[in-house]
């Protein structure tokens, strides 16, 4: 309960409670860095105990990197203590120094200040320089698309839980004292977070798994679509033999005065390179806009796809 209260204060710094506590206990600092002070009250000691417990599980989301100290321990998941090589201090103390204007990591600056293992870990961390300016609009569009899509509700809920790291991973169950260990039961070498179990586990052959489940997914969505068509009336504009399943939506052109956005991405792991592009078509299939780009990174394919979609929407 104390950790939850600490999270509310940290997450809602404009709340009345946060204002009162800041005015009384940490006027010249923030809640996460507030000191215990002289002769602290029982409530202050309890609140800071909850704060310290909360801090053990906090992880930075990079964004543009302007507010994150480079040597902070809570942004690189497999490095507790981060250090520069040869004591080569960069001119800035925040991560924004290592992020280029296009939002990608600057490999030249990384090579100048970190060893190869640290660089490899950094390249696997996604960035989002637009997080402060368009994150709300982008997230609203994302979830509006998810919740209004013609897919089974339990898949929508799974997507929501996976995005918010609420699936019953070993880490989540360990945090709730259900399991004795947070480590992955398959590879046994990493903490099993939602990201690890879905994307990163070394024992998971993703190509093999996707190949096995693809027929099931196609069959499942076809059955769901057929069941919906039996319950819901067909639109007046539909013709005999037409279909509205999600499986062929990619081949359907938009209605007049609307546009279709198509995005794709690719990863070359051997050289830590990814590329992505997008085109916009009108209702007759004519390409009216497009772009393509490439960068050096170690991001998993799903993050490259997300980066491509975010840039296309921007």
UniProtKB/TrEMBL annotation:
Which branch of life, at top level?
Eukaryota
- Alphabetical list of InterPro entries matching this protein: RVT-Znf
Reverse transcriptase zinc-binding domain location? 139-203
Write the protein's name: Reverse transcriptase zinc-binding domain-containing protein
Lineage from the top down?
Eukaryota, Viridiplantae, Streptophyta, Embryophyta, Tracheophyta
């Amino acid at each position: 309960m104390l950790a939850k209260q600490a999270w509310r204060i940290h997450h809602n710094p404009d709340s009345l409670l946060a204002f009162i506590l800041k005015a009384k206990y940490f006027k010249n600092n923030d809640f996460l860095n507030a000191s215990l002070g002289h002769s602290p009250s029982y409530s202050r000691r309890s609140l800071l105990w909850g704060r310290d417990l909360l801090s053990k599980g906090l992880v930075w989301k990079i964004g543009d990197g302007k507010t994150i100290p480079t040597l902070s321990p809570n942004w690189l998941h497999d490095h507790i203590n981060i250090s520069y090589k040869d004591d080569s201090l960069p001119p800035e103390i925040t991560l924004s120094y290592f992020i280029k204007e296009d939002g990608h990591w600057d490999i030249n600056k990384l090579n100048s200040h970190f060893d190869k293992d640290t660089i490899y870990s950094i390249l696997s961390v996604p960035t989002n320089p637009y997080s402060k300016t368009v994150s709300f609009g982008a997230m609203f569009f994302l979830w509006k698309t998810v919740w209004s899509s013609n897919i089974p509700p339990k898949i929508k809920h799974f997507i929501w839980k996976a995005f918010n790291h609420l699936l019953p991973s070993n880490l989540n169950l360990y945090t709730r004292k259900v399991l004795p260990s947070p480590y992955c039961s398959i590879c046994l070498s990493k903490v099993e977070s939602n990201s690890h179990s879905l994307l990163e586990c070394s024992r998971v052959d993703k190509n093999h798994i996707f190949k096995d489940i693809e027929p099931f997914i196609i069959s499942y969505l076809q059955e769901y679509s057929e069941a919906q068509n039996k319950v819901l009336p067909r639109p007046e504009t539909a013709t005999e033999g037409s279909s509205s399943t999600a499986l062929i939506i990619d081949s359907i052109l938009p209605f007049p005065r609307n546009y279709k956005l198509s995005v794709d991405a690719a990863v070359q792991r051997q050289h830590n390179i990814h590329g992505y592009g997008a085109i916009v078509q009108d209702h007759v299939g004519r390409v009216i806009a497009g772009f393509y780009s490439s960068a050096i990174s170690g991001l998993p394919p799903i993050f490259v796809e997300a980066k491509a979609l975010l840039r296309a929407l921007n």
